[in-house]
Amino acid sequence: METTLEQTAPQLAPGKPDATSLRWLYSFVLPHRLGISLLLLVSIAATLLVLVQPYLTKRMIDEGLLAKDFDQLLSIATMLLAVGLFSTLLAGVSRYFHTRLSGQILFALRESVYAHLQTLSPAFYSRQRTGDILSRLDGDVAEIQRFAVDGLFSGVSGIIGLIGSVSMLLWLNWRLALGMLVLIPMQLVYLRYMRPLVQQRTRRLRERSADISSFLVETLGAMKFIQSVSAERRENGNLQGLNRNYLKELLGLQIIEFAANSVPSTLTTLFRASAFLIGGYAVIQGEMELGALIAFSAYLGMAVGPVHTLLGLYMAVMRLRVSLERVCSLTQAQPAVQDLGNQQLSEGSSGLLQLEEVCFSYPTSEGKGEEITELNNDRIFDGATATLPAGRRIGLLGPSGSGKSTLVDLLQRHYDPDSGRVLLNGMDLKSLSIAELRRRIAVVSQDVVLFGGSIDANIRYACPEADQAAVLTALEQAGLGAFIEQLAEGLQTRIGERGTRLSGGQKQRIAIARALLQNPDILILDEATSAVDAATEAQILDEVLRLFEGRTLIVISHRESSLTAMDMRIKITDRKLNVEGENV
Asked: What is the number of other CB atoms lying within 10 angstroms of the CB of residue 119?
């Protein structure tokens, strides 16, 4: 069974991401190492060109202006212009390819996390807020990508810029430059003190952002109900409260970051002012050239930029730690089932299902649908044994919470039994690939899942390669032919998000058409006709029974009348499967 999100979160050492998390992160960066290397060379070249400009300015002042040599002034000015233009060109090229590279890595990170989320069981999603997952996929993944790529380039450029500018400062006036070497350690000590405060505030801000995302996901999908009970003002008040909480944390983070940045910035400004005063006095005394002082001031400004960049990178590591924790807790959550099977069923297999001494219970706090008992860690099945003959029509009965939907989840391997076996055509479900199994068992549930595309795309969802004739046949068989003919855009009609433009009955008929197109060996109708009246339900069931003649059909319904045409009925009582009635 999968563990909780908190149990799977990586335990990071204080102040820095752990090696496993960083290896995971840079596994997305290394495939682009050639492009990164070329961009680094361009970035280094651009940084070196920037370092040349103050030196040329010094020469222009001392050898041109003060020496009153116009030819020399024109020559150096031309060189300065050429260097500036080439530097601008390199910066533009670097920015374009940097943006492309950043996007590729960002998308790869997000796609990888999303692919892992697709392997997790329904229990995982019953525990986690959708808005929180979205917040991690969006904001936290983007923060990680920014550090992985932008941090790399900023760090290299900052180091090159700092080394180059400090070298020039030492060459111009080593006594004045020594202050810079004292200033940097002072700033690092201060930021190390501020680090835990920034991390704490960043984490709380991300959580408040997730609160807002979760609220919007939940309420926008339930807007019709909110309106029907006149709860608009109350929900708007709830959003205002969430916004106030977010703003409080945002302002708190702003204050902490201001304190973290203002002290180093003030120290730097104080040093620059002192250096200019001391250098100015040296110029007045004739101990230093004016051009050298101006160049020193320019290089000092250039040294300040990399220092702030590197200090900012140090702060970014703190934010990275928070984001890595949040994203790695998703990537390290383990699936409830392992897809290790590779056996294949023969085409047109019979659809014989067998349960042998199946025991199953949900771990504490893993809730799902009707199984309320799982919150108490009670067993859903305890030694359940039954044979569901191939090609038979089987009705499944049981009170709410007895495990009807859980049985469906076991058949599709959203979960595995704690003990015992489930077999399809004599083969343990674990020996089959999950994709092969779920292709053979189609489920039409009460809560129909539809996407905001066209009718055609929704019907083809489980079988996208189906031809148009097969789609039209499935529509006719599901009783949707007349409905489609009335639509101006026919099959290309868009149905709105979650099928909001359709009635409940139309949604369920589309779901049935989708299952028919899938052509499974076993069809499970889990309260699939609950949105239609009894007469329509009987009509749909008669049609389904006719269409699936010779294949296994399992019908779960709260209407006793829906199961009268079944060959056998199985009732879930006392955590077991009991044959209640059989028509041979």
From this structure: 16
